[in-house]
Amino acid sequence: MLAEFWMWITDLGNSKMVALVIFFTTFVGIVLYVYSNKARSERLESYRYVPFLDDDEYKPQEVSPKQGEK
Q1: 44 φ, ψ to 5°?
Q2: DSSP secondary structure letter of residue 29
Q3: Which residues, at least 6 apart from 37, have a Cβ–Cβ distance to it below 8 Å?
Q4: Which terms are listed as keywords in the entry (predicted)?
Q5: How many CA atoms lie within 13 A of 21 on its CB side?
Q6: How far apart are CA 11 and CA 18, in angstroms?
Q7: What DSSP line would sit under 34-66, residue for residue?
Q8: Which residue of 12, 19, 33, 65 could cross-link 69, Cys pair, CB 3.0 to 4.6 Å?
C-alpha cells in the first residue's frame, strides 16, 4: 500500500495536483486567519499606508531605561 502511494505521488501529474491542493489550502487558511477577526483586520488595514510615510514623519518613541540603568 505504501509503495503504491509512493509510486502515485512521484508521478509528475499527481504530485502537481497534491502541491496545488496543499498551497491552495494554505493560502485560504492565511486569508481566513487575517480577515476573520475584525480587530486584526482593522489593525492590518491601518498598516497599508506605511510605505508612503516619510522618514521625517516617523519619530520613534523614546525607550525608557531598564530598571537599574542610568
Answers
A1: -65, -35
A2: H
A3: none
A4: Membrane, Transmembrane, Transmembrane helix
A5: 6
A6: 11
A7: HHHSHHHHHHHHHGGGGGG--TTT--PPPPPPP
A8: 65
**Length of the chain in residues, anyone?**
70
Mention every residue, 6+ apart, whose C-beta is less than 8 A from residue 8: 14
In angstroms, the CA 51 to CA 34 distance is 20
Amino acid making up residue 26 = T
Amino acid at 60: P
The rounded distance, in Å, linking the Cα atoms of 43 and 50 is 12
Write down the pLDDT at residue 70: 52
pLDDT tens column, 12-60: 888 888 899 999 999 999 989 888 888 887 887 888 888 887 766 555 5
Of 31, 25, 26, the closest CA to residue 44 belongs to 31
